[in-house]
Specification:
By secondary structure, this protein is an all-alpha fold. The protein has one domain. The protein is built from nine helices and no strands. Helix 4 crosses helix 5 and helix 4 packs parallel to helix 6. The radius of gyration is 18 Å and the shape is globular.
Length: 214
Amino acid sequence: MSCLFCFSGDKLSPDERRGKYGDLWGQYADNEATFKVNLCGAPCAEPCCYVGSMICSPCAQYKLRHMALNHLEPGSGWRNYTCCQGMFGGCCCIQPGNMGEDGCPQCCMCLEGCCCPGMAVSASQGIIMQRYDLGLDSDDVRIIRCNNCLQICSLCASCLNICIDCEGDNAIVNCINLVADVVFCCVSGCMTARVYHEINEREREAPKGYRMDR
């Protein structure tokens, strides 16, 4: 995670807010409120959740989404579940809300956690951010920039690997992909632990009647 500090923590620029994912996270960029613990502090705040989410990410995302949905509407179970909570749009026949969520939301969430773990944790985080108007802290901004950098490096390396045949090129591409995978696991664990911590803290602070209703 120390490599993240090579990137600026300043607010996202207008160019960085473009595109599907730029639009998604850019809407939170100007909010002043932030999570109760920053991204890099989440493993210390919730160490068991952090480790557990990296050992079995699908199980962690299943639990986290259920917590988030029932935090926003106590007792709702899976009634308000849709694939990625509709935050990333759809593609061809894959359209949130039309994936059988009404009939078997638990199975759909299991598939989401297995096939799209990054989107799964982002969706759980997103619905909490929407409810409490939370913004991006400096760690979030660094993550976005680090991820963009890794994706560009991976794309360039893959293209060069196709166009240029030289000794060791496959090893370089594999190293870049390995770094990207390690960063993804660490970031996903941090995001999961932070959302888990936020939900627990807000429920501790909630009025007694609210906790009893849950």
